[in-house]
Design brief:
There is one protein chain. By secondary structure, the chain is mainly α. It has one domain (3-270). It is 77% helix and 0% strand. α1 (8-21) packs across α3 (45-63). It is globular and about 55 Å long. The chain starts with 7 loop residues before the first helix and ends with a helix.
Length: 271
């Protein structure tokens, strides 16, 4: 789809939608599919998807810049000077945890693209994984911090990301669910999920960017793209900030309720 087929309202709406849903446990991919299904909008296209993902990547890099600097230094010392620390261990776990999602994307992306746009499917996954998030928040002891993470926990969280290929699941939601089942506290579950999003979004954006370059960018409206990047970045930054501020107080129940209501509404609409 060419960008000129998106008017100003649609560009703004989709950029806000991407920024608001990328890091919340409610599924950004599922929400971005909805406008075309519910409002008969044309699909926003690869160019726009790349732009808003770049925006959310900027947001998470900016928000966690201090943490990332510390992790990169620790990882460098671990590689070149054999100086191991809690930070270097976390950095290695984050890198290793991206592998299952990357492999899953390469193996199943085409099948998901072909069969994953059903309202019933999005509604069902929204409800099912929302309830799973509720159970994990209730049953997990929430006693472990990021410093207490082990490789078993990192592996389970990594494997959970494969489910996020299904629209409506939510990468953030499923990784937080797995982290809570592994007894991480809410803040630790959220921070690990957000840090883990960086290589995932970067890799996804790179692959989509390569596809875009192969298709050609002569007709791209760069001002529109820059606007979409800016809007998605600003919205995503504040979503990360306020989510981390509130999650210890409000828990995940509001997001579970939203997911269940959204899922019921989509299934009823489809039927």
């Amino acid at each position: 789809m060419e960008l000129q087929e998106l008017d100003f309202f649609q560009v703004t709406f989709l950029a806000v939608l991407q920024g608001a849903t990328e890091f919340l446990p409610i599924s950004s991919s599922g929400h971005l599919i909805l406008p075309s299904l519910l409002f008969a909008w044309n699909d926003q296209g690869l160019t726009f998807d790349v732009a808003v993902h770049v925006g959310t990547l900027f947001a998470v890099l900016l928000y966690f810049r201090v943490d990332l600097q510390r992790l990169i230094i620790a990882l460098t010392l671990s590689v070149f000077q054999r100086e191991h620390s809690t930070d270097s261990k976390l950095a290695w776990m984050l890198l290793a945890a991206t592998i299952p999602a990357g492999l899953g994307g390469l193996l199943f992306a085409s099948q998901v693209e072909q069969y994953g746009r059903s309202l019933v499917l999005i509604g069902g996954t929204s409800i099912g994984f929302g309830l799973l998030l509720f159970v994990s928040d209730r049953l997990g002891s929430k006693q472990r911090s990021l410093a207490q993470m082990n490789w078993k926990t990192a592996l389970l969280i990594a494997l959970s990301q494969v489910f996020a290929l299904i629209p409506g699941t939510s990468r953030s939601g499923v990784t937080m669910t797995a982290a809570l089942f592994c007894n991480l506290d809410r803040a630790a579950a959220a921070r690990f999920s957000f840090l883990l999003a960086i290589p995932i979004i970067a890799a996804s954006g790179l692959l989509r960017g390569i596809e875009l370059l192969q298709l050609g960018t002569e007709s791209v409206e760069w001002l529109v793209l820059l606007y979409a990047i800016f809007i998605s970045a600003v919205v995503a930054y504040f979503c990360i900030h306020y989510f981390l501020q509130l999650i210890e107080r409000i828990g995940f129940l509001p997001f579970v309720i939203y997911r269940v209501l959204l899922g019921i509404g989509l299934i009823l609409l489809a039927l």
